[in-house]
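Milestone 3.1: sequence recovery, worked example.
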C-alpha cells in the first residue's frame, strides 16, 4: 500500500513544491507525493529561485500551484505543513484531518518549529530553505 504525503505551505510556489520535488527525486516506490497551499492561486508556476536551487541539485521541477481542497485531504495518508499556522489552518478547515496533520518538523523529529519561508528573498535564502528541507526529507525517508 502506498503512503501518500501531502506537503502544505501558503502559496504552493516555494516550500511545498520544493519538498514535493525533493521527495519525488528519491523515487520511493511506496510513496506518492503532492503539494498544495492554503492561500494558493490555482495554476501558478513555482518561484524562479525555487526552480534554480532545485536545478542546482539536478532536480527538474514542473509545477502548477494548487489550492488545498477536500480531495487532497482525503487522498493524503499524512499532511505535512511548513508551519504551525498552516497546520492550524488545515485542521480548522478540515477537522477530519486532525489525526494525520503535522508540521513537517513535528512529524520527523517530534519537535515544534517552522520551515523558513524564503518568499521574496534571495537565491541564498532559497538555498538555505532547500538545505533545511533536504535534511527533513532525509529524516522522513528513514521514518517511512
Amino acid at each position: 500500500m502506498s503512503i501518500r504525503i501531502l506537503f502544505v505551505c501558503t502559496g504552493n510556489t516555494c516550500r511545498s513544491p520544493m519538498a514535493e520535488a525533493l521527495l519525488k527525486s528519491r523515487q520511493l516506490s511506496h510513496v506518492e507525493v503532492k503539494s498544495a497551499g492554503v492561500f494558493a492561486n490555482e495554476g501558478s508556476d513555482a518561484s524562479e529561485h525555487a526552480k534554480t536551487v532545485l536545478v542546482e541539485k539536478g532536480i527538474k521541477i514542473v509545477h502548477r500551484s494548487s489550492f488545498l481542497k477536500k480531495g487532497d485531504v482525503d487522498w493524503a495518508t499524512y499532511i505535512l505543513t511548513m508551519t504551525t499556522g498552516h497546520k492550524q489552518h488545515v485542521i480548522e478547515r478540515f477537522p477530519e484531518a486532525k489525526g494525520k496533520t503535522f508540521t513537517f518538523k513535528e512529524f520527523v523529529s517530534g519537535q515544534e518549529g517552522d520551515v523558513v519561508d524564503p518568499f521574496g528573498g534571495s537565491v541564498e535564502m532559497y538555498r538555505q530553505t532547500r538545505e533545511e528541507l533536504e535534511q527533513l526529507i532525509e529524516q522522513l525517508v528513514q521514518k517511512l
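The first strand starts at residue 3 and ends at 9. The chain has a mean pLDDT of 96.
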